[in-house]
């Protein structure tokens, strides 16, 4: 798998993007008389201060915080949480992606390119043909199950995941095909239904299958979520339309996430990501428990049992992916993200 080694940075590109974005936002707010609308939605802007940091420093999009805030705290429809996730990530994750690319951080290019092609095929199909038929309750449950299982995985595997250096290199065509399948399936299902998740799927493949360094896996996951979010918001506008209120919440949160997500990228690069991942993992498990409790009457005992079984199924899938990676790791070469030199499996996994 090809890895981009750090080269000369071009941060002027990111600053140019910020100038363009804030100019457009200022025209909307002050030129079109929308300042009062933005002010009225200040709580979501405050929430996304933390959400945007999470988006840049972990494999979880800003919608991972925005969705439960709108749906669980404010009692908004789950479909609104999904559309807001797409909208806010189309600024925050794009800003973080431009920052990552301008800094020339190492990326898993082959798998990323495959995932982008897969998302280009799967996400529009999921938005048009799958998401409209998923009940509001089950949008909440899908979100809760996926991120709950993701949190549990990190609570008991964080030491191993954080210890990886470099990345196991396989055939680039194989990596592209894996990314293609993952991007198509997760784009059509979890991303189209909840507005987030394709980043987690790609991240899981990188850290469990390829034993990728977090400094490679997380920036790669940020970029696939940025691509899918922009694609999702375009498809939503051209097909089903956005849920009422999504734009108003976006208007308030957008100027926060444009800076917050890149800040998460920068700070996590300096202090490491293990502690942040642990905190977010606990929050993921907590939101699963909260969702199940708040929807206990609608779900009933059978529904709650199904939720727990779904978490178990996700964890089983993660462990199978890890076991497959353990078999394949001996067939590839580990590359250091900065130098491109080989790192033996023995050195990386004593």
Task: Tell me what you see in this structure.
- With 350 residues, the protein is an all-alpha fold.
- It has one domain.
- Helices cover 78% and strands 2% of the residues.
- It is built from 14 helices and three strands.
- It has a three-stranded antiparallel beta sheet.
- Strand 2 (333-335) and strand 3 (342-343) form a beta hairpin.
- Helix 9 packs parallel to helix 13 (296-328) and helix 12 (274-294) runs antiparallel to helix 13.
- It is globular and about 60 Å long.
- 50% of the residues are buried.
- The model is unreliable at 1-6 and 336-350 (pLDDT under 50).
How are the elements arranged and paired?
Blueprint: H1 11-31, H2 35-40, H3 42-57, H4 63-73, H5 78-102, H6 109-129, H7 136-163, E1 167-169, H8 172-194, H9 198-209, H10 214-238, H11 246-271, H12 274-294, H13 296-328, E2 333-335, E3 342-343, H14 345-348
Helix pairs in contact: 1-5, 1-11, 3-4, 3-11, 4-5, 5-10, 5-11, 6-8, 6-10, 7-12, 7-13, 9-10, 9-13, 12-13
Please summarize what this structure is.
The chain is built from 14 helices and 3 strands. The chain has helices spanning 11-31, 35-40, 42-57, 63-73, 78-102, 109-129, 136-163, 172-194, 198-209, 214-238, 246-271, 274-294, 296-328, 345-348; strands at residues 167-169, 333-335, 342-343.
Question: Which descriptors would you attach to this protein?
Answer:
three-stranded antiparallel β-sheet, mainly alpha, 2% strand, disordered C terminus
